[in-house]
Amino acid sequence: MTFALPKKTRILWQIRISFVFAVLYAPLVVFCRHSPIILLPTTVVVTIGSVFVFVYATIYLKRYKITVDKSGVCLTKGLIIKTVVIVPYARLAFIKSFSTPLAALLKLKCTMLKVSRGWLIIPEIESEQAECLIKMMQND
Amino acid sequence: MFYLLRSYWLVFTAPIVRVIVQYVITKDAKLILPLEFVMLSLAVIAAIIRWLSISITLTPENLIIKKGVLIRTFTTIDKSQVFAISGSQSLFSAIIGCERCNISTVAEHNKKMILKLKKRDFKIICNVFCDKDERLQLKRQENPKRFMTLPLVFLIAIITLVSIYVLSFRQIGSLELLAIIVLIALDLYYAGFCYYNYKNGKLYLGRCVSASSTQVFSVVKFHCNNVGVIKITQNPFDRRFGTCKIKFTAFGESGESVKVKHLQHKTALEQLNQEFKLNINE
Questions:
Q1: Long-range pairs of B59-62 with CB within 8 A, sequence gap ≥ 24
Q2: Is B22 helix (H, G, I), strand (E, B) or coil?
Q3: Is A126 helix (H, G, I), strand (E, B) or coil?
Q4: B79 neighbors B62 (Cβ within 8 angstroms)
Q5: Is A71 strand, coil or helix?
Q6: pLDDT tens digits for A6-39?
Q7: Secondary structure (H, E, C), B194-212
Q8: A23 in reach of chain B (CB within 8 A)
Q9: Which run of H or E residues covers position A68?
Q10: How much of chain B, in percent, has pLDDT values that exceed 90?
Q11: A74 neighbourhood in chain B, CB within 8 Å
Q12: Which of B231, B252, B254 is opposite residue A83, by nearest beta carbon?
């Protein structure tokens, strides 16, 4: 079974990244009024942020694929550096799923897989798909 | 024993630093002071005593390690509890003819059993603890240019920086010359490891995953009975030439891993699918 991330996940992450950028660079924008010297770096930063939010994050999340079969879980991700991570079921310690208030509103759940050293994070997917994924891993 | 002297690196480097600083300031420096001589002698005696106190016994089922001077420790590692064995060898280790052996077991959290062994002893331990089954060898990129690309890029960068510096300041002092020599030496050192990777890098799949590769500035040999996570990475150059890098991490908290580069992507995927019963597509 292979599935991609829903469109709602892309919107959710765009909202999150935009919010973080806004909080970090609001002081810069305020200072621009008092000191025009930092107008150019602020413009560059805002442009880079916008490209990251609306272009890079969109394509990255669109290309994210999750494959679940009899032997294990396979995550395909990455835009410039493409990565495929394979975790056999026998190597999974446990699975955890959670959702933030905004994700719960959009009926999305994030799943974290505990492997031998560290965590493997599957970004927000539909709640039913997350539950189906957890059941498949429990059965195997 | 020479490897154990590394623990006392401060005792060996402090006199060298002292001589350099004294020479720069006063243009006159004694090579060795009485106190430094005493400290050096004590360090050598301590290394000899520690070396004499270590005993490693290998049986078909266990590895028994006894070490310690004041507090004697006795460690038994059962064959069935070993997940991975890896050996790394830097230039210093290669000169003194030994290999740093890391044994990852089921209960180690961020710690591995580390031994310093002769090369042949490391091979014997690997043969006992790992069921070597080199059925499938993953094919690597045969073009040497791919392996030597990064050292060449660094060399071009060094030459460019030196040229810019000479054009700007028109002179190179002794300190700048020393810095250039050190940078070129480091680049050639790195190129040596890339060449070793091209000639000797291998990856075998079977009951035990075995790999020979380079990591930072050391040669790594890895044997793993229980693979945890497999990670396949492709940067834009890899996608252009049809190659990939595969990283195998051993199952267990220690996270022992090896990364093998310049593998042919299509063949690697087919053989991984076959060996681990996966279904990954290109």
A1: B60/B128
A2: helix
A3: strand
A4: yes
A5: coil
A6: 888 988 888 888 888 888 777 777 777 777 777 7
A7: HHHHHHHCEEEECCCEEEE
A8: no
A9: strand A65-68
A10: 2
A11: 278-280
A12: B231
- What is the residue type of B43? A
Strand A108-114's sheet: what is its strand order?
A94-98, A108-114, A119-126
pLDDT of residue B110: 42
Q: Which of B77, B83, B89, B81 minimizes the C-alpha distance to B117?
A: B89
Q: Tokens representing B207?
A: 């009951």
Q: Which of A100, A109, A104, A103 is nearest to A129 (CA)?
A: A109
CA contacts within 13 A on the Cβ side of B237: 10
Q: Which residues pair with B104 in a beta bridge?
A: B84
Residues of A in contact with B255 (CB under 8 A): 116-118
Q: Which of B3, B155, B247 is nearest to A83 (CA)?
A: B247
Confidence band for B113, pLDDT divided at 50, 70 and 90: low
Inter-residue contact B13 to B108 (CB < 8 Å): no
Cα separation values, A4 from A50, A106, A129, B207, B256, Å: 24, 16, 11, 33, 31
Q: What is the mean predicted confidence (pLDDT) over B258-264?
A: 85
Model ipTM value: 0.78
Q: Are B241 and B263 in contact (CB under 8 A)?
A: no
Closest CA to A54 of A13, A1, A3, A98: A13
Please check whether residue A134 is in contact with residue A122, taking contact to mean a CB–CB distance below 8 angstroms. no
In the numeric block, which tokens belong to residue A77? Answer: 């991700």
Q: Taking CB atoms and an 8 Å cutoff, what residues of chain B touch A85? A: 229-232
Cross-chain Cβ contact A74/B255 below 8 Å? no
Contact A90, A75 (CB under 8 A): no
B96, B3 contact by CB (below 8 A): yes
Q: What is the pLDDT of residue B59?
A: 80
> What is the C-alpha end-to-end distance of chain A, expressed in Å?
14
What would the two tokens of residue B180 be?
């250039």
A15, A20, A42, B205 from A28: Cα distances, Å: 20, 14, 6, 54
Tell me if residue B257 falls in helix, strand or coil: strand
Residues of chain A with pLDDT under 50: none
Give the global pTM. 0.76
Cα–Cα distance measured from residue A123 to residue A121, given in angstroms and rounded to the nearest whole number: 6
β-bridge mates for residue B242, sequence order: none
Of B60, B54, B123, nearest in space to B87 by CA: B123
| Per-residue CA distances from A78 to A16, B3, B236 (Å) | 19, 42, 11
